[in-house]
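Attaching the record inline, Q. Sequence:
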Amino acid sequence: MLQPGATIGMLGGGQLGRMFTIAARTLGYRVIVLEPDPQSPAGQLADQHIQAAYDDAQALQHLGQACDVITTEFENIPAQTLKLLSTYCPVHPSAEAVQVAQDRIVEKTFVRSCGLSPVPFIPVRSLADLQQAETQIQFPAILKTARLGYDGKGQITVNSIPEAEAAFKQLNQVDCVLEQRVELEREISVVLGRNQHGEVHCFPVAENEHRKGILHQTTVPARISAELEQQAKQAATTIATQLNFIGVMAVEFFVTKSGELLVNEMAPRTHNSGHYTLDACVTSQFEQQVRMVCDLPFGATRLVSPVVMINLLGDLWPEGGQPDWLQVFNEPETKLHLYGKASARKGRKMGHYCTLAATADEASIKANAIFQQLERVSE
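Structure, as predicted:
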């Protein structure tokens, strides 16, 4: 167990690292961030910011020797980096756990090995692999790069094998997965913490709405049955257990029109759909991450209030100006979180807000009214 006063290393300096840093420093820990961006959101608030690439041997040695434990805010840290750092101090999650989430082919195959159902898919490593597509999945489908795609990037919707072949060429014929499009009732996610002793605590299930492949809104409680909620939590727990995962992770699911629960993808870290925990749960996902990597007891995951979280993208920023934040502050049960990013651009996550209310429907009405006002100002 690492007590306050210990030093935690954070690989990655984005908004997830920033909110982790706030939680860790609030609890009395020191934080060292390794991140190449000199203006990184997490680096601004850390005790120390090592500005270096993730494969810089000298910087990694400095980080490893200075820290009591190291964690990460995103899954595309090179596995070799995590393995090297583990020779200096514990690293949570492990390279082995993170590697599974770095490649969609590996990830979906792993989900099947857990006895769970991913979206129907085929691996695509060459044009020849697409010739068998129609015998295994139905069109329309989505061709996704196996590595590095997120927030809708590296994805192309296709309606036939010729379109899939053209899309594969457009994606430079890197390894891909071809996923069948499914009739969705809704999208949900489970954020959980798992400690070094194999115990798992789940946060309340979140219901998510995406726009252009980017999360727009999260509503909690999700509009699902108690049975489906339990099924999703059990599936996420199974994945974390099979990975021997330590830390906080998220699993995203599709709920089909027929009521089937399909695993969409996993994130071996804190997650955008878990931001509601900052204001609406006893413990935030970021404090829970601190607790897990330091081998502290779990914080309670109980929902204190129904909540709607809405992402704030750079699209809302007028040229040379700021959104009208008074629209947010005028709603007394809404909490604004800005990430300290130097410049806004379309599709860039600049912040979010959480609106609390007596019911999820009431929170949704209030949160969406704020967003409509912000959109008007940005036009």
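The chain has a mean pLDDT of 94. The chain has three domains: 7-91, 120-180, 184-378.

More tomorrow.
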